[in-house]
Amino acid sequence: MLDARVPGWETAAWLAEDAFCVCVARVDKRSEGKENEFVFCDPVPETLDTVGPPLLPTKPMPYVAPLDPQQREIILVGSVRGAVTSVSVTMFGQTATAAVQQLPATGGRQIGAYAVWLPRDGGQRDGMNLSDITAVVGHDADGNVVTQLD
Questions:
Q1: In what order do the strands lie in the sheet with 101-103?
Q2: Neighbours of 51 (CB within 10 A)
Q3: Sign of the alpha-carbon dihedral angle for 129, 81, 84, 14
C-alpha cells in the first residue's frame, strides 16, 4: 500500500513485466464493489530498466478515477530509481511529501513508488495538468536532495 492518509481511499503500486501499475480504490462505507476500484498500467519508464544513481524519471501521474466531484484533492503517483526515500511534489503553490515504498524488482534494480494528495483546480476537467506540477524533489534517508524535476 502506498497511501492511506486520505480517509476512504487506498492506493497501491507494483511492477508487472514491463508495466508500472497503480490501483486506486474507494474503501469507505458509501461505496462497495469493483466499480470503486480502478487499476491503471503504463509502460515502465525506460530509465527504470537500468541500475543507476537516484532518479525521478517523470512527474507523478494523476489518477482521477474514481472521480468524486466533491473530492477537493487529487492523488498523484510516481516512481523513483535508486536511494530515494521520500519525494516532495509542489502543485498550485502547495507541497506534499510522501515516503517512497520499494517495489520488488529484478536485475539489481532499486525501484520505488510514492503517492501524494494535492488540491485540485475545479476549473479543469481532471482538476489539473502536468504543467501545474512545478517541482518534484527526491530526498535520501538523511534528507539531502538527490534528484529533482522542475
A1: 61-63, 73-81, 111-119, 101-103
A2: 12
A3: positive
Burial class (CB in 10 A: 0-12, 13-18, 19+), 44: buried
Backbone angles phi and psi of 114, in degrees to 5: -145, 160
Under 8 Å CB-to-CB from 110, ≥6 apart: which residues?
51, 81, 82, 83, 102
Nearest-CA neighbor of 118 among 149, 69, 64, 72? 72
Cis preceding-peptide flag for 66 (omega within 30 of 0): yes
Residue 130 sits at φ, ψ, to 5 deg, of: -60, -30
For β-strands 94-99 and 19-26, DSSP reports them as: unpaired
Cell numbers standing for residue 70: 466533491
Q: What is the pLDDT along the chain (150 residues), one digit of tens a residue?
A: 777 677 777 888 999 888 999 988 877 666 555 557 788 899 988 898 888 899 999 999 987 655 555 667 888 999 999 999 999 999 989 999 999 999 988 777 889 999 998 887 755 556 678 888 999 999 999 999 999 997
